[in-house]
C-alpha cells in the first residue's frame, strides 16, 4: 500500500480517472465514448467483423505502440493489459482478443492532449492473440501479443 | 579450517567411504580449486530438502525444440560428454549423465547431503575471503521432514550452512504467511530473501526486496532475485492469492539499472526461471554479468555466454537434489568482469567427511520422525528414478498404484523433476516415498473426462514443455500417463503435438467419458474437500506388491526426434 500513490491518483486528470474507473468496473467503456456504445463492434463475433465495425479494416503495424501483458495469464478471468501509444494525436485505444466469443474487450476514447496510456483487465477463455488497436490522427494502427491461458498444475 | 585440514578431512572421508577409484591424491585433485579473482560466489539450487546423501539419475530424455535443440541444457548422455569435453565412464561422467547409472552409482556412491555440502562450503570460504553462498530456491520442499516441519528443518540447515541470499518457488507452496514468517523471523539479519518479480496484486508493490548489494574484497556486488515466474499457474494459486509473479523483463531492467546506479560493480541474477527462459532473458536485458539459474534441474558443466545489447551475460544451471555446488570466481575491475572461472562441483559423499555440526543438526531434526521415515514398504528389484521428459520408473509405479487403487483405466501424474533414485535391491522406505510425493496439495482424484478433455490436457502440458518460445514454458516435464498410449510430436504446433491416442487396442473417442485417476490438484475445490493423500494410497499399494520387479515404462512414440541430442539410448 502506498498512500502517496493514492493521492496522486486522486489528483490525476479526468482521463486518467475515467480509465481508472473503467478498470474498476464503475464505468462501462461505452460510457466514456462520446458517440455512445458501438453495439455492432462489441457484438461482433470475429476479428474481421470487429475491425470493420470500428472502421479499421486494414490497420498498419507500429513500433510506437506497446502492449504490456503477461506471457502466461495467472488467472484467465482477470488478465492485466496495458497499452502505451506514443503516436501523436492518439484518439482511441481498443483491446481485442481473437479467441474470445466477442473479440472487442474494451475501447477507450481519449480527449485531445491525453497521454496514450490505458490499463484494464480482461477475461480470456483460452490462449489467444491479443491486439491493441490505436486510432491516431484518423489512422488505425495495431500490434499483437500472444497470451497463454493454461490449465495449470504439473509444474516444477 | 585451513586447506591442509580440509584435504585431510577429504582423505579421511575417502578412507571411510572406500570409493573404488579414489586415492587421496585423486580426491585432492577433484576438490582442489585454486582461488581466482576478487568476487567469489557459491551457488546451489533445487536441493528439494535432501539433507542426506542420495542417488540421483540425470535424464536420458531432455529434448530441445526449435532454437533450443542441440544446445545446453538439451544434451544428454554421450552428446553432453562430448560437448563439454568429459571422459566417458569417469567420475564426472557419472555426475552429469545417466550412462551406466546403476553400475556407476555403486562405484562412486551417493551424492549430496548437507553435512558433506557444509564441509565443502567451509573449505571454499577458507580460500575465498568474502565468498557468498546463494540458494536458488526449491529448498524447503521435497522430503517428509520438510513437509512435516513446514520447512523448518531446511531453514535451520540453511542458516547453519551460511546461506547469504535466497530466492524461491516451491517455498511458496507452504503458503504466503509461512514464507513471510520465516523471512521476517528466522532469516532476519542473516539471509536476504530477494525477488524482483513478486508484487502485490492490488497496487503492484514489491513483496520482497528486489536485490541486495554485498561488498567483498572492495567490490560491490548486486544479487537480484528472480522467483519462479509461473508459481501461481504451475502450483495452486491459493497459496499466493495476493501476489502476482511473471518474468517481468522491463521491471528487471529497471532493477539492474538501479543496482548499477547504487554502485554495484557486478550484477548477478539469482534465478528460478529455468535455463531456456534464462537464455532468452540474457539476450534481452542489459547489464547482468551472470545469471545463476535453477528450476529446470540441469547440471550444466560450463556457463553459456549470451550476447546482448549491453555486452554479454553468463548463464548457468546448477542441477538438483544437493548433487552439485557451483563455484564462480570473477575478476571485477572498474565495473566490468574481466575474466572468470566456473566449476560445477559434484558433491560425492564418499569423498567428503561430513561436517560434525551440520550432521548433529540433521540428526536432531530427523530424530522425532526417525521411526516413520525408516518404515520399509517394499523392496525394489529395479532402478527407480523420476527425471526425464516423459516418464520414469518411480512415476510408472505411482501410475500403476493410482490405476489399481482407484479402479481407473487411465492415470495422470505430474511431471515433477524432483524425487531421488533407488538402486535395485534397496528397500523402499517411507522416506523414499515421501521424497516423491511430499507436497502440500497431495490429494488423489478420480475424474470422469471425455476423450476430448484428455487430449486438451495433454496438449496443454505438452505446450508448457515444448513451446518454441521459452517464455511460454513452465519448466516441468510432461505429465506422466498411465494406461493410455499416444504419439508425441514435440516439434508440432500447439494443439497438434498429441496424436493417435489409444486405450488398449481402441482409439480414444472424443465424446466418450473415461475414469482418470490423478493427484496434486491445484483447485480450491480440491483443497476444501480433501481426499486421500497420494502417500497413503501408494503405501497401501507398495505393501501389497512387496517386491517391485522390472517394469515397462509407458512412453509415447516420438515423432521427428530421431537425431535430437536430447534423446538418449536407454
Class from helix and strand fractions of chain A: alpha+beta
What's the CATH class label of the largest domain in chain B?
Alpha Beta
Q: So what's the oligomer here?
A: heterodimer
Helix content of chain B: 25-40%
Strand order of the largest sheet of chain A: 4-3-6-7
How many separate domains of chain B? 2
The amount of beta strand of chain B, in percent, is 15-25%
Low-confidence regions of chain A: 1-34
CATH architecture verdict of chain A: Sandwich
Task: Name the features.
heterodimer; A: 156 residues; alpha+beta; Immunoglobulin-like; four-stranded antiparallel β-sheet; 7 strands; 32% strand; globular; B: alpha/beta; Purple Acid Phosphatase, chain A, domain 2; six-stranded mixed β-sheet; 21% strand
Please provide a written account of the structure.
The complex is a heterodimer of chains A (156) and B (570). Chain A has 156 residues and is an alpha+beta fold. Chain A has helices at residues 3-11, 14-24, 29-32, 39-43, 47-53, and strands spanning 65-68, 79-85, 90-97, 104-109, 116-122, 128-136, 139-147. Chain A has a single domain (3-147), classed as SoxY domain (Immunoglobulin-like), CATH 2.60.40.2470. Chain A is built from five helices and seven strands, in the order H-H-H-H-H-E-E-E-E-E-E-E. Chain B has 570 residues and is α/β, with parallel strands linked by helices. Chain B folds into two domains: 3-54 and 110-364, Purple Acid Phosphatase, chain A, domain 2; 374-558, 5'-nucleotidase,  domain 2. In chain B, 32% of the residues lie in helices and 21% in strands. Chain B contains 19 helices and 25 strands. In chain B, the strands form six sheets. Chain B has a six-stranded mixed sheet. A six-stranded mixed sheet of chain B has the order 6-7-9-10-12-11, with helices on one face. The chains are: A alpha+beta (156), B alpha/beta (570). Chain A binds chain B through residues 1-2, 5, 68, 70-75, 80, 127, 146, 148, 150-156, and chain B through 138, 169-170, 202-203, 205, 228, 230, 232-235, 237, 244-247, 250, 295, 414-418, 456-457, 460-461, 463-464, 467, 469, 471-472, 474-476, 479, 494, 520-522.
Amino acid at each position: 500500500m502506498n498512500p502517496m500513490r493514492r493521492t496522486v491518483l486522486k489528483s490525476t486528470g479526468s482521463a486518467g480517472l475515467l480509465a481508472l474507473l473503467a478498470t474498476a468496473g464503475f464505468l462501462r467503456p461505452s460510457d466514456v465514448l462520446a458517440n455512445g456504445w458501438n453495439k455492432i463492434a462489441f457484438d461482433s463475433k470475429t476479428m474481421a467483423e470487429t475491425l470493420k465495425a470500428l472502421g479499421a479494416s486494414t490497420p498498419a503495424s507500429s513500433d510506437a505502440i506497446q502492449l504490456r501483458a503477461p506471457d502466461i495469464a495467472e488467472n484467465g478471468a482477470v488478465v492485466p493489459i496495458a497499452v502505451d501509444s506514443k503516436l501523436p494525436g492518439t484518439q482511441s485505444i481498443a483491446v481485442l482478443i481473437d479467441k474470445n466469443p466477442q473479440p472487442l474487450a474494451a475501447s477507450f476514447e481519449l480527449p485531445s492532449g491525453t497521454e496514450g496510456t490505458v490499463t484494464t483487465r480482461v477475461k480470456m477463455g483460452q490462449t489467444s492473440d491479443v491486439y491493441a488497436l490505436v486510432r491516431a490522427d484518423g489512422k488505425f494502427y495495431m500490434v499483437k501479443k500472444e497470451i497463454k491461458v493454461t490449465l495449470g498444475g504439473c509444474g516444477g | 579450517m585451513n586447506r591442509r585440514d580440509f584435504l585431510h578431512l577429504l582423505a579421511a572421508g575417502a578412507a571411510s567411504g572406500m570409493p573404488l577409484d579414489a586415492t587421496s591424491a585423486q580426491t585432492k585433485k577433484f576438490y582442489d580449486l585454486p582461488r581466482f579473482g576478487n568476487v567469489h560466489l557459491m551457488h546451489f539450487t533445487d536441493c528439494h530438502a535432501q539433507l542426506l546423501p542420495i542417488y540421483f539419475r540425470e535424464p536420458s530424455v531432455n529434448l530441445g525444440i526449435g532454437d533450443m535443440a542441440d544446445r545446453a541444457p538439451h544434451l544428454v548422455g554421450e552428446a553432453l560428454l562430448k560437448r563439454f569435453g568429459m571422459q566417458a565412464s569417469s567420475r564426472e561422467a557419472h555426475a552429469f549423465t545417466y550412462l551406466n547409472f546403476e553400475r556407476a552409482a555403486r562405484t562412486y556412491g551417493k551424492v549430496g547431503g548437507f553435512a558433506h555440502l557444509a564441509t565443502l562450503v567451509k573449505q571454499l570460504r577458507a580460500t575465498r575471503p568474502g565468498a557468498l553462498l546463494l540458494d536458488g530456491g526449491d529448498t524447503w520442499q521435497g522430503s517428509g521432514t520438510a513437509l512435516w516441519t513446514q520447512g523448518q528443518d531446511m531453514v535451520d540447515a540453511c542458516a547453519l550452512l551460511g546461506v547469504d541470499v535466497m530466492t524461491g518457488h516451491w517455498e511458496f507452496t507452504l503458503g504466503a504467511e509461512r514464507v513471510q514468517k520465516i523471512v521476517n523471523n528466522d532469516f532476519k539479519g542473516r539471509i536476504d530473501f530477494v525477488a524482483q518479480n513478486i508484487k502485490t496484486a492490488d497496487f503492484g508493490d514489491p513483496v520482497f526486496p528486489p536485490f541486495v548489494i554485498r561488498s567483498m574484497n572492495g567490490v560491490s556486488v548486486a544479487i537480484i532475485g528472480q522467483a519462479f515466474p509461473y508459481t501461481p499457474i504451475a502450483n495452486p494459486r491459493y497459496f499466493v492469492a495476493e501476489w502476482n509473479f511473471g518474468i517481468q523483463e522491463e521491471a528487471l531492467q529497471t532493477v539492474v539499472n538501479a543496482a548499477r546506479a547504487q554502485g554495484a560493480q557486478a550484477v548477478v541474477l539469482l534465478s528460478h526461471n529455468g535455463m531456456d527462459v534464462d537464455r532468452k532473458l540474457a539476450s534481452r536485458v542489459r547489464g547482468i554479468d551472470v545469471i545463476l539459474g535453477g528450476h529446470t534441474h540441469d547440471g550444466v558443466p560450463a556457463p553459456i555466454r549470451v550476447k546482448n545489447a549491453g555486452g554479454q551475460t553468463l548463464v548457468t544451471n546448477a542441477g538438483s537434489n544437493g548433487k552439485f555446488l557451483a563455484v564462480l570466481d570473477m575478476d571485477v575491475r572498474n565495473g566490468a568482469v574481466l575474466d572468470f572461472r566456473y566449476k560445477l562441483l559434484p558433491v560425492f559423499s564418499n569423498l567428503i567427511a561430513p561436517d560434525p555440526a551440520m550432521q548433529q543438526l540433521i540428526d536432531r531434526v530427523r530424530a522425532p520422525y526417525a521411526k516413520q521415515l525408516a518404515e520399509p514398504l517394499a523392496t525394489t528389484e529395479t532402478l527407480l528414478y523420476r527425471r526425464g521428459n516423459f516418464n520414469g520408473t518411480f512415476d510408472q509405479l505411482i501410475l500403476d498404484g493410482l490405476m489399481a487403487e482407484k479402479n481407473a483405466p487411465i492415470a495422470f501424474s505430474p511431471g515433477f523433476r524432483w524425487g531421488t533414485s533407488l538402486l535395485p535391491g534397496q528397500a523402499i522406505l517411507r522416506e523414499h516415498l515421501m521424497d516423491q510425493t511430499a507436497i502440500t496439495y497431495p490429494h488423489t482424484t478420480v475424474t470422469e473426462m471425455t476423450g476430448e478433455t484428455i487430449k486438451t490436457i495433454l496438449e496443454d502440458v505438452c505446450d508448457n514443455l515444448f513451446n518454441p518460445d521459452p517464455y511460454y514454458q513452465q519448466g516441468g516435464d510432461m505429465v506422466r500417463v498411465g494406461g493410455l498410449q499416444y504419439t508425441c510430436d514435440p516439434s508440432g504446433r500447439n494443439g497438434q503435438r498429441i496424436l493417435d491416442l489409444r486405450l488398449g487396442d481402441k482409439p480414444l473417442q472424443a465424446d466418450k467419458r473415461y475414469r482418470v485417476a490423478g493427484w496434486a490438484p491445484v483447485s480450491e475445490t480440491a483443497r476444501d474437500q480433501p481426499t486421500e493423500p497420494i502417500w497413503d494410497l501408494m503405501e497401501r499399494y507398495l505393501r501389497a506388491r512387496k517386491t517391485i520387479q522390472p517394469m515397462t515404462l509407458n512412453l509415447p512414440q516420438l515423432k521427428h526426434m530421431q537425431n535430437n541430442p536430447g534423446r538418449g539410448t536407454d
